[in-house]
Amino acid sequence: MEILKQWSQEVQDSGFPLIKEFIDFLPNLLGAALLLALGWFVSGLFKRGTARLAAFLNRVLNTMLRRGGLAKLTFSSPIISLFSKVVFWAVFLFFVKFAAHALGLEAITDWLDDVVDYLPTFLAGGIIIGAGVLFSFLARDLTNAAAESAQLPENKLYGLIAQVATLVSTVVMGLNQIGINVSFLANMIGVTVGALLGSLALAFGLGSKTFVSNLIGSHYLQQQYKPGQRIRMDGSEGIILEITPTSIILETKDGRMVIPAKLFNEKSTCLLIMEDNNER
């Protein structure tokens, strides 16, 4: 019996301090739980606000670009969902940090301090990359519109080049902002872009010689002639219907004739006197 009493006393002596510590720790535990619950609620508000802000920006951008005659440009639903989740967990991380501090988890608190300190830099890099994706589409549409208005061949190719160049530049800037060493990547991209531009320049110089000659010929041709005049060149005679950026269209007795503009720099041309109005 004496042994049982001694054992019971030992259990009480060892159990009561543990219970007392738990009771003393209980307010901190409840406070941490409340912080996490509040953080979950606030993070949800930020998530929904981010999605609504992205939808509002979609409407504003579409209105602005539609007035400029550009293609529709929007943040896609997966991108909006991804960015909203990033905002959610970024905000919730702050509350996790406060909860860990309330519980006295110093090791976790120190690690979360480093993560939170790095978070603005990471978000800034993500915003730069996201803006780069958006502006790459804008650069593509602007380049396509300019190339189409200039009646350049393969105008879609110029837009694609502008889009890729803008996207690559902003990705490199974003990674550099995050803290990733992009020196090797930038050098590799520079060499690749240089080789690509050199190849394009060589191909353009060799393959578009005739096209450039026609452009130059058409430029000077428009200064000397105008639609409605009758001309003769190399045995062909007709009335000018239209002068395009690369050719001239004549109405002859056999039908419409398209003559490359560069020929007017290489062969003699005669402006005929028309009998109906005596115009040279």
TrEMBL record:
Pfam families: MS_channel_1st_1. The chain crosses the membrane at residues 25-46, 73-98, 118-137, 157-178, 184-206. One of its GO terms (molecular function) is mechanosensitive monoatomic ion channel activity. The keyword DNA damage does not apply. Keywords: Membrane, Transmembrane, Transmembrane helix. The keyword Membrane applies. InterPro entries: MSC_TM_helix, MscS_archaea/bacteria_type. It comes from the Bacteria. This is Mechanosensitive ion channel. It comes from Candidatus Nitronauta litoralis. The lineage of its organism: Bacteria, Pseudomonadati, Nitrospinota/Tectimicrobiota group, Nitrospinota, Nitrospinia.
